[in-house]
């Protein structure tokens, strides 16, 4: 079959890399892709948010399956759009309907859904901009630290944990003043949960599901989990503390009620569910849902999936996941992200990258790269490269990833040197 992947980051490079290994693939396209995806797929210069162009490409190129990488096309309703046209109605699309995508598109929607279907999560209350005073009064009823979340999509930067009431009030003012535009016109305030986090990934056809390898990512820019939040500085899979007993709790208390809830609410959901969890006293609580795979977790998860990914996705799209099992590698995958100097704040672009050809036993997934007019690969984003290695232990895999990081050069290169250290006890 011909497959189209939408997106341009490290997540999409990893997905394309895995799809390209399938026996079921004829042609693989990615829109818009990056210099890394060009090595395993054909890049197409289409913006995934230009649904009319996506539809035309699907019909012109006999596309059977569309895999949506990022959240924005899903939140804006690409499934609903394609299903409204006879020529694309039957294309297999991996991703939920516009309503289903509200699990990520609206923090308030997600919290209401969890509350309705008995999914464990932190206590919360939602306020709109005209309720600023009520929100500040509500804060006085809570103990620090305070968790404030912009309701809508904010590129992973819409969550602030404030240690003082003054800082929390100031954050509220900034959010309500429109820091993230429409996304922060409503704010969710929730109790702070103390524990250790991990990401769990599920593929569901709306009735049944399979659980993909879990991962732990590292959000803050500085070592020791300090500094500003980023899109993610690294990931490890599997997660040692997510043992069978804990993952059984996750399945019965979180995954099953989530999939059952979607069905009960008549929400058309065929795709990935990313469940951001926190383990509190050996119990799972949901911090957030995403309606696609995570980044950088995808770069650590995909190399551990031994099953044919296209086969899994086809069963997801056609409602045939029941009874499906997934084969997973016992090896550990570690991902180290190389970022631009200054990220996650201001940073330069178009900086020449050298040494990629010297990376041999590590997968170098491109996140923020492009080719310049001379055909050389240069930086094009805050997160530049995701270096994933496999090993018999976290330590063995990390030593490969860090060795690869040293072989790659560009001005301002930065990466965390403590990825996975908290998991090696």
Describe this structure in words.
- The chain is built from twelve helices and 22 strands.
- With 425 residues, the chain is α+β, with helices and mostly antiparallel strands.
- It is 27% helix and 26% strand.
- Strand 1 (2-7), helix 1 and strand 2 form a beta-alpha-beta unit.
- The mean pLDDT is 96.
- The chain has four domains: 2-97, Rossmann fold (3-Layer(aba) Sandwich); 125-190, ATP-grasp fold, A domain (Dna Ligase, domain 1, 2-Layer Sandwich); 196-318, ATP-grasp fold, B domain (D-amino Acid Aminotransferase, Chain A, domain 1, 2-Layer Sandwich); 332-423, Phosphoribosylglycinamide synthetase, C-terminal domain (Glycinamide Ribonucleotide Synthetase, Chain A, domain 4, Alpha-Beta Complex), CATH 3.90.600.
- The protein is globular.
- The protein has a five-stranded parallel beta sheet with strand order 3-2-1-4-5, with helices on one face. It has a five-stranded antiparallel beta sheet with strand order 12-15-18-22-19. The chain has a four-stranded antiparallel beta sheet with strand order 6-9-7-8, sandwiched between helices.
- The termini are far apart.
- Helix 6 packs across helix 9 (244-264) and helix 7 (132-140) runs antiparallel to helix 8 (165-176).
Short recap of the structure:
This protein is 27% helix and 26% strand. With 425 residues, it is α+β, with helices and mostly antiparallel strands. The protein folds into four domains: 2-97, Rossmann fold (3-Layer(aba) Sandwich); 125-190, Dna Ligase, domain 1; 196-318, D-amino Acid Aminotransferase, Chain A, domain 1 (2-Layer Sandwich), CATH 3.30.470; 332-423, Glycinamide Ribonucleotide Synthetase, Chain A, domain 4, CATH 3.90.600.
């Amino acid at each position: 079959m011909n497959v189209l992947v939408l997106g341009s980051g490290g997540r999409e490079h990893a997905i394309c890399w895995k799809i390209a290994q399938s026996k079921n693939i004829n042609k693989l396209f990615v829109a818009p892709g990056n210099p890394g995806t060009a090595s395993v797929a054909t890049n197409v210069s289409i913006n995934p948010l230009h649904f009319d162009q996506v539809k035309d490409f699907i019909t012109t190129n006999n596309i059977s399956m569309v895999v949506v990488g990022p959240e924005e096309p899903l939140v804006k309703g690409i499934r609903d759009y394609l299903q409204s046209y006879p020529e694309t109605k039957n294309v297999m699309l991996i991703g939920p309907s516009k309503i289903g995508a509200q699990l990520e598109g609206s923090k308030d929607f997600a919290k209401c859904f969890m509350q309705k279907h008995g999914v464990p999560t932190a206590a919360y209350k939602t306020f709109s901009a005209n309720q600023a005073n009520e929100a500040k009064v509500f804060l006085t009823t809570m103990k620090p630290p305070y968790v404030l979340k912009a309701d809508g999509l904010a590129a992973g930067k819409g969550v602030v944990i404030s240690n003082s009431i003054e800082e929390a009030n100031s954050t509220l003012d900034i959010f309500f003043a429109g820091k993230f535009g429409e996304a922060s016109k409503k704010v969710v305030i929730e109790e702070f949960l103390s524990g250790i986090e991990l990401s769990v990934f599920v593929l569901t056809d709306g009735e049944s599901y399979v659980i993909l390898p879990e991962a732990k990512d590292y959000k803050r820019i500085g070592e020791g989990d300090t500094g500003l939040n980023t899109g993610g500085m690294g990931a490890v899979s599997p997660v040692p503390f997510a043992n069978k007993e804990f993952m059984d709790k996750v399945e019965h208390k979180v995954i099953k009620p989530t999939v059952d809830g979607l069905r009960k609410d008549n929400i058309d959901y065929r795709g990935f569910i990313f469940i951001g969890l926190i383990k509190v006293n050996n119990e799972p609580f949901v911090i957030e849902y995403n309606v696609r795979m995570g980044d950088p977790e995808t770069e650590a998860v995909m190399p551990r999936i031994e099953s044919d990914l296209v086969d899994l996705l086809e069963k997801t799209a056609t409602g045939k996941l029941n009874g499906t099992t997934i084969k997973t590698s016992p090896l550990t995958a570690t991902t180290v992200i190389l970022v631009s100097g200054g990220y996650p704040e201001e940073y330069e672009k178009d900086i020449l990258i050298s040494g990629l050809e010297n990376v041999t036993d590590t997968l170098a997934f491109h996140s923020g790269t492009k080719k310049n007019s001379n055909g050389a690969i240069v930086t094009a984003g805050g997160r530049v490269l995701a270096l994933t290695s496999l090993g018999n232990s976290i330590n063995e895999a990390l030593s490969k990833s860090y060795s690869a990081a040293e072989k790659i050069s560009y001005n301002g290169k930065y990466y965390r040197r403590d990825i996975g250290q908290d998991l090696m006890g």
